[in-house]
Amino acid sequence: MQSSGILDLLQLKPSAQSLDFVHRKKQFQLHHLVTEQRHPLTWNLSFILKKDIKAGLAQLLAVDRDISRRLAELAEDKSFLSYLHQAAESISDVIGRGGRIFIYGCGSTGRLAKQMESALWRLFWGRVRKFSSSWGKSSQVLSGFPPSKVEDLVIGEMTGGDRALISALEGFEDLELVGRLQLRERNLRAGDVVICITEGGETSSVIGAMKEAWDEWQKLSLSNETRREKARRYLYFVYNNPDGVLLPLERSRSILHNPAITRLNLTTGPQAITGSTRMQATTSETFLMGGLLEAGLRRYLKGGGGPAGEKLLRGQSAWSFPSFLQSFETLRQSLEASLEAAARLVELESRVYRLGGQTIYLAREGLLTVFVDCAERSPTFHLPPLDPCEASPRRSWFQVWTEAASGEAAWRVLLGRDFRGLDPEFYERPFREEITDSFLRRAALESLAQAGTAEKDKYDFSFSPANISRRGPQPGDLGIVVCLPEEMARLGEEDSAFRRFLHLCQSQGARLGLILVLNPGQKDKFSPRRLVATLRLDPREDVIVPLVVDSYPALLGLRQHVLLKMFLNAHSTAVMARLGRVVGNTMTYVNPSNLKLIGRATYLIQSHVNDILQADEWQARYGSRPLLTYAEANALLWEAMDYVRSGREESSEVALVIVLVLEAWKRGQKVSWEEAQAILKKKGLENYLLQHKPSLGELSPGSGRSRPQGRGESKFKDSSPGTYSQLPEIQKKNLPGRFKPEDRKRSVKTPLSPPKKGRFNDLD
Fold first, then answer.
1. Is 78-320 a CATH 3.40.50.10490 domain?
2. Separation CA 517–CA 500 (nearest Å)
3. Nearest-angstrom CA–CA distance, 129 and 390
4. Pairing of strands 359-363, 262-265
5. At 175, phi and psi to the nearest 5?
6. If you ran DSSP here, which 8-state letter would residue 451 be given?
7. Which CATH superfamily is domain 49-63+335-403+463-578 in?
8. Quick one: 17 exposed, middle or buried, by C-beta within 10 A (0-12, 13-18, 19+)?
9. For 287, 424, 435, 438, which has the most beta carbons within 10 A of its beta carbon?
10. Mean pLDDT, to the nearest integer, of 103-117?
């Protein structure tokens, strides 16, 4: 596509960073991936949510059916099931001999890794130790059980270490070296189980960790065939895009073509919010990863846990991979039953933010799941990250608290262990000597300074007198209590942290919400009607959302965390959409904090601008204008990033550029960033786009029309039958064959306007 001339009109030239990205960073221009496409079911999500919250939530949750369909397919795939059994056997073996299980991810999958270690594995063994104490010290059942330091066998590691739980460390994700060094620092050895998880299948740091694990095997004196055969039983790569769209990326190809690595492809399709892989991609990977740990643990308890293991399994229903994978649909259906109350909570929290208030979440066993959702709101919707202790005035829209006496104690509740940062002495020299890209080297060194163990002292999540005094609830704020089934009894105790928090919020004039994950037998005892009376709530203003988890057998408590995660994902997305931080189902307020997100932001700018320029309403009023090129969109994005970083008023770079370009074409002259900012602040991006294309809010899949395509655009095509939700009329068709990820040869890029009815074609 030829240059549109917009840079000349704005009197701007591409920066060195932009030229470098466009010409040398093509491997991070990922808008062709399936996970970066627009989902047809949520095409006009933001408009629906503003009119009918319950309908919008139903639209969001409907996309999770894609996970159910995909897992049901895999439950019948003998080859895939054999890989799962192999992984479970290796996990059991490692537990028995005291080896280690490394789970490595970045961003959402890094937080997934932390959940596996801290919210599932460590909590389980903590409960076992309490339970086993009732057996008596002399009991033969306890002989050698639980194994020494068994809590430490699972290591959930994320790019950037524990500090990255709060916010991403710029530059780390884009470097294979970071993943390599993190596993090297933890003394990884051949024979440890290593499971590397990436939503898209292309994250550099995760791929680096996978390569480091394979390198350990290459140090062994074995024949190549024997080495590969042994390694593939311990090395796993989990991802959520078709092989065919990943193979053009050299870093992904190096893993997909390595026969020593077992690949688990969970491709479910586009996300409910375009590119927001914290949703369906990470949900499916969380469910599968938890299932692998559960299966490995059960094998160990049955075969190597002795009488104590048998005692723990006694009374447990039968568990199998096929039934486990198929059971996801039951969880999904549980969420649909909560839509009425969920809609009320969305309305309440969005109203609190609109009026300048803040939300404080209080949780204990569900703490990490709540913490993860809140932390992920920052990059997804361009919100200030969680405030450090001394932040004044408070900037973050929310806080997460837990019952603890101090900030350090709160970290131990969150992680189940002490906070662990990156050691600068271990990382600095390799960063300086091995990172050849000057931009990435500078970013990595700056982030390293923020990743050390001392970072823990900057944040305090404790429900303590100091925190109450410093950042306690104020009139107009919202306090939300989150309880899991094992904690429900404490909600009835007057002196419990839950009750004290409720009383504090009530005394300060804050509204209340309760998110209660219940076992089926708890529904009546803790019904909303009873709790309103017991807790002295205001039924007109306060909201209780009961989420009933099913009774499928689960030692690790995975299902309650997945149910809570899915609810919070939908809840926070709906809140932000109502506040204008989503347009349709596009992530227009994404924070371009790494190369992948810079690529996503660039494509969003190009797509939205060109959609308006091609609209009949625009052309009738302003005439035809040249379409924006990818290179121009990227050049303007870098300029906007500099503008926002310069300390001026906080804003979305994507939204700023869209307004700047359209205003310049309208006026036929240069427009300043300050002018674009003023327009955006007054109207909001969604209303601004509606002004120039009134039909935008009425669009739904099937109402689009054919139009010329710009770079990175083509008509939306279904990737394969049975993979992700399609339009209702398409769902009714009996599409032949069963989807296999390796069958996909390529992906497509999606225009902003939706497809015509009947224009879904099989990619193959």
1. yes
2. 20
3. 38
4. unpaired
5. -120, 120
6. S
7. Glucose-6-phosphate isomerase like protein; domain 1 (3.40.50.10490)
8. middle
9. 287
10. 97
Which are the contacts of 750, defined by CB distance < 8 A and separation ≥ 6?
37, 38, 270, 274, 713, 714, 716
> In 10 A of CB 141, how many CB atoms?
16
- β-pair type (154-158, 543-548): unpaired
In 3D space, the residue among 411, 426, 501 whose CA is nearest the CA of residue 458 turns out to be 411
Q: Residue 722: pLDDT above 60?
A: no
Is the model's pLDDT at 219 over the cut of 70? Answer: yes
Token pair of 323, please? 């039934």
pLDDT higher than 50, residue 592: yes
464/548 Cα distance (integer angstroms): 30
Task: List pLDDT tens digits, range 660-673.
Answer: 999 999 999 999 99
CA distance 714 to 710: 8
Tokens of 205: 């740091």
Q: How far is CA 326 from CA 68, 81, 191, in A?
A: 7, 13, 31
Predicted TM-score (pTM) of the model is 0.90
Measure Cα distances from 106 to 110, 231, 282 in Å: 4, 23, 11
Closest listed residue to residue 159, CA positions, set 238, 106, 117: 106
Mapped onto helix, strand or coil, the DSSP state of residue 270 is: coil
- What average pLDDT does this structure show over 414-434? 97
Helix-helix angle 280-303:65-74, to 10 degrees: 40
The two domains 49-63+335-403+463-578 and 78-320 share their CATH topology (first three levels equal)? yes
